[in-house]
Amino acid sequence: MTPWQMAWTHISRLRAQSVMILLSLALSIAAGGLLLRIYVLTQSRFSSLAHGGDAIVAGKASGADILLGSLNLEADKPNPLPLTLFNSLKSGQTVKFEDGTLVNTSSFIQSIIPLIYYATYQDGKVIGTDLSFFDRPKRDDSLILRDGRFFNGSAINEAVVGDSVAAENRLKTGDRISFRLSEMDDRKDFLVVGILQSSHSAWDRGVYTNLNAAYSWLNEKSVSHSVWKNGILHYYLIYMKPEGFKPLQSLINERTVGQLVSIENEKSKLAELTGSGGQLGIVIISFIILLTTVAVTGIMIVRYEGMRLQTAILRAMGFPVSYLMMWLLGEGLILSALACFIGAVIDLILFYPLIKLLGKAVPDPSLYTSSI
């Protein structure tokens, strides 16, 4: 009988102890794997965050929700904002608030970009915007075409698709694609007129049309806000002029339904939050491994204490020390390999239910399959 056969026979004979060792190791591996994958998934948000200027205006929400909803395309149903406020800010007009205050915002804003999330294509967002979305004040933030052209300002059936969307769906300019309206089960075909060059950010996962396409479709299906009708947006991305943030934040946060947040501040807060969570996860994983090591070591000591008589008999029968060492080593390797396999299966089974349980605390793993 070979040492490996001897090892398997011994594992089978001490079935109860073997099962306890396997479960201890497998659960430890699964718990460590789950925590590690969730941490990697959370960190993936930072590598995919898109460039959005200096500040974001959105409906009332937490800063993290605004940041991830707008620049990581994670928003499901963001709170709407009035289009009239955007038009006033964009044109630099004097804005009159409900309390009668008159403010000219032209000294605060360098550029402002509208976004409305109104439809979906496959798993991606369809976003209504204008040409300022592609041509930014900062050259590094601008989005460049890989093929085709940008949509026409008045066309209601033209779309520009992100690099990832085009690659995953094998799209090229001239293709027709079908979008689904977010508010109801209605579909409409659009013509792909351009494909963006990869920006290595969330913008690669989006599809873009002009605002007229969004408002025309919403009006056609009588989907409207109770107050602002079809004149809504979900986000304004703003490039600020020097010293413009604080006065504009005061005006918008205190006198409108919107909320202005600093992109850099919210990124720092999110990084601090996820960094603390990652450190806690490492501590928990270490503690789990330590407890498992202690438990398994105790079981193995008891297990091998009972083998003294067996090893003595085998030595008396002429079996060399190398044979006994291979037996013991083989037993450990078999148990470890089985535990890794079982732990991996538990990880695969529990990962997606755990993600759903955590909700918005972690992003959709389908967006980051390459990293997990």
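Next protein, fold it too.
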Amino acid sequence: MNSIKKNRHNPIVALSLVFLLTACEQKFPPDSPEYVVQALYSDSATKGIPRDRAALSRYFDGRLTELLLNDFNCIGADGKSCGLLYFDPVAQTKEPDITDLKLFKPEESNDVLVDFMQNGAEYKAICAMVKTRDGWRVSDIIYYGANQILDPGASVMTYLSMQTPLPPPWHPTVPGMSPEELEKLHL
């Protein structure tokens, strides 16, 4: 009797495992926007965003690469960091631990919607993508959802383009997209 019950559940277990592996191991063509975003988030999952030009250039366009480098390398007269970023812009936290990464790209858009778990909380972002001579690159990361470190609609590009940092929470938004519109986007 035990072996009948065991065999009866095997197809369910097998299908569950296939579904889990498919959801966790999304595969994208190397020349796609999703591939670049997946590589960025996978590489940053526990170590955080890379901090050298060569690595940043694999993921970000020229403008965002320069802004990130300037921020990472900013040292004030007192010898302390004077960068605007007080968190990892990919992981949206000070201590990256990204798991359960899911990506979605709407057909009519080059942007990639990102959903991941970190320390038991769900995080969401939109990676604005541009096609460069070197391939697809992230031109901005826009945060939305309940657990991001910045307000819904906050943008890394907007934040890094500011002359002086604002204490959290701050409220820049993506031009043309309200926080309510961002909240309607679901993965």
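About the second fold: The CA atoms of residues 53 and 65 lie 7 Å apart.
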